[in-house]
# Entry
Amino acid sequence: WNDDGTLKHETKFYKRMIEDLEEDPRTFKNVFKKSDYEIDRMTIPEARSRIVLLKELGIPFDEELLNYYKKFSFPFTLLIVCLIAIGVSTLSQKNILILALFFSIGLAIIYYVLQMLISALASGGRINPFIGAWLSIFIFMPIGIYLVRIAKTWYLENWLFKILKKDSQSNARCGQLYLNHGIVNTPVFMPVGTNG
# Structure
């Protein structure tokens, strides 16, 4: 620094070996703990300013940027797991709980492995950190929505109403309607009463 307070010389470095250090390095280890600078433990404004600082110093910041984007993408993981669980819960009437459990666990494992692979690629700088944080969400969200739509259709067709025969010449069909008070064969003229 100059006498007037202006910066005379600045040296930027990421790692530097200091030969004649009087203090014990363990002293510095306690002062500069890595956990103090982990993006996961920071608030969003702190994480953003940390990434800007790393960028200005020329230090690689792909992993920090990935963890910053994960702060926004991670909450969608719960939604995806719920959609998958709802979707696979109606795949079969026989042994429905066992099949739903195995399919849900299998898809969750596939989701987790894919997320780990993409995160590793993003941390290494091979893909954009934004894509690394959101790609598994973008892949599995449509799968979860599709499974829920199939489950709804399957539930309506196989549990509430079962088609027994269809006419090939028209849209006519006969089936069974499953209600709380019993099974109703259709077509039928059904008087309906309400508590009016």
Q: What stands out?
A: Residues 27-35 have pLDDT under 50 and may be disordered. Helices lie at 25-31, 44-57, 62-73, 75-88, 96-123, 129-160. The longest helix spans residues 129-160.
